[in-house]
Design brief:
Helix content: over 70%
Number of strands: 0
Largest sheet: none
Radius of gyration: 17 Å
CATH class: Mainly Alpha
Shape: globular
CATH topology: Helix Hairpins
Order of helices and strands: HHHH
Distance between the termini: 33 Å
């Protein structure tokens, strides 16, 4: 499966309000919430298991990362960006930073 195929299949489970702005807000908040769930699960691994990641932890983290991916695919669609294009742009940006020695640091346009 390629990224655009995933995006199209993900959209079949989108519950749209019919209001583009509200759908985008829902997507942004959902993405934030799911990313928070990934962070929270990992925090508990560090706190309760001294950073030892079990197979069950990997499966649970994988599910949450999948939810993050779903929201990314939906948000990209709502913004008119095919997921394949988003992925390619990101890799080009990172390759450019690497070539210029700018992978570390801060700022979007480094």
């Amino acid at each position: 499966m390629n990224f655009n195929d995933y995006q199209q299949q993900a959209l079949t489970t989108l519950l749209s309000t019919g209001d583009e702005f509200k759908d985008i807000v829902h997507g942004v908040l959902g993405l934030s919430g799911e990313a928070g769930e990934v962070a929270d699960k990992f925090k508990k691994i560090v706190r309760d298991k001294q950073g030892e990641i079990s197979e069950q932890d990997r499966q649970e983290l994988s599910k949450e990362i999948g939810d993050v991916l779903w929201y990314i695919a939906v948000l990209a669609h709502l913004l008119g960006v095919p997921l394949e294009q988003l992925v390619e742009q990101n890799l080009e940006k990172l390759a450019s930073r690497q070539q210029r020695g700018k992978l570390s640091g801060s700022g979007d346009n480094r």
